[in-house]
Each structure stands twice: as structure tokens, then as C-alpha cells.
Amino acid sequence: MSALPHPPPGPHRGVPDRPARPRPALPGGDRSGRDAPGPAPLPRPGDLFLPGRPFDRVELRALVADGVLVPVVLEAHALRGRPVTRAVKLAALEAQLPPHLLRRGVLGRLSAAWFYDCAAPPAVLPVLLDKLRRTTMSPVPEGLALHQVTLGGYDVHTAGPVQVTTPLRTAVDLALHVPGPEGTAALERLLDAAHLHCPPALVATALRSFGRLPGRRAALLRVRRAARAVGRPLP
Known about the structure:
Layout: E1 48-49, H1 57-65, E2 69-73, E3 76-79, H2 86-96, H3 99-104, E4 106-107, H4 110-115, E5 125-130, E6 144-149, E7 156-159, E8 162-165, H5 167-177, H6 181-192, H7 200-208, H8 216-229
Parallel strand pairs: 5-6
Antiparallel strand pairs: 1-3, 2-3, 4-5, 7-8
Helix pairs in contact: 5-6, 5-7, 5-8, 6-8, 7-8
């Protein structure tokens, strides 16, 4: 797809029985995750937990099951009750994305919608790569899906160490490439979020600017339906 113009108005296999592993202990607490006397404090609410830092994947799953931790994105977790702010999201992404994707990749589609608080974290994180820039395509880390696209200067927003498509480009991409329920729900939230400055009329205008782009008519219909669903119908 082209850049936006400047500017656009199965079940698990069984495993043999083995002794139950003790529940992981948070630093400064006992093995149930409760506070215990001692000099070591509990982690600060903003701390992130990743495999091996300090718990392994089995222990992380146990802490999630116990309600102690909640997933943030990919394999990053935070303490329950800690708001998953953009700062937390940025820290989680910086800790997990390879350096070449931090430099060249752009969060897009459902991953951008998640960044803007308009979608749940996708199971597979879409990352966009500009066709015009040389970027190593392999190996692709587990949990990521790379898409080569054309990105313009007005399509990308830099947020600290991470690049993300702008709300307008995100809405256009959702309408074009994510037609299922997740994409529809995210598109509706984007159109309804006044602080993101992405009204339905602007998204429709951006889509019309692409001329004969495949899927444009269906995408315009999705935008029209989403606008109606959030009480902002197009004329």
C-alpha cells in the first residue's frame, strides 16, 4: 500500500506426571507471592517480568494463574493493578524487539491499535518495514509478523525507542487489512477517540486518495459502518 499523501484532509499433548514445582516467590515475599518479613522489598509496580528475569516461563504462567502478574505484550508481564501505560508498553517492547527492528520496524495495524489503547495486545505483533529501506528480514522472532509496505513521513510517529504508525495510518490499515472482529473493534475505538484526532471523515478521505488501491471500496464500507456504530455517521 502507498504512503498517505501529505497531508490527507490445539489441545496440548499429555506429559508424564512429575512432582509439583514449588510456586515462584516474588522478591521479598514467600513462595505464595505474599509479603514476608525481610529486608528485600517487593518489586516496584513498574517493573517488568520476562522469561529468565527472574522467573522462567513455567513460573510466569503460574504467577499469571494466581493473579499476581498480568501479561503486557509478547512475553512481558507486570504486577496486577499496575496501569499498563505507554511507558510500560515502551519498556516491554524495548526489552523484547531485536535492535534492527527497533531501528527500522514500525508497529502497525493491531499492534499500533494496542499501543494507542484501542485493542488488546495481539497474539502476533504486526511490524511494518518500509520497502524503500534495506532491512534484515530474517530470522523473524517468534510472536512477530513482518509486513513490507510503503511508509511516508506523515505515516510514522516516534515514541521513545519505538516507531508506530500514526492514528490515521493505523485506521486506514485496519480498514484495509484487518477485516475481522478484532480489526472492526479497534477501528471503532480509533474513530471514537477524540484525542487521537482520527475522525471518520478524515479516514474516508485518506482511503479515497489511493485511487485504484485493491480493497479500497470494502475498506470505505468498513469505515462507514464503524462510524455509524460509534454514533459518528458519514454523510
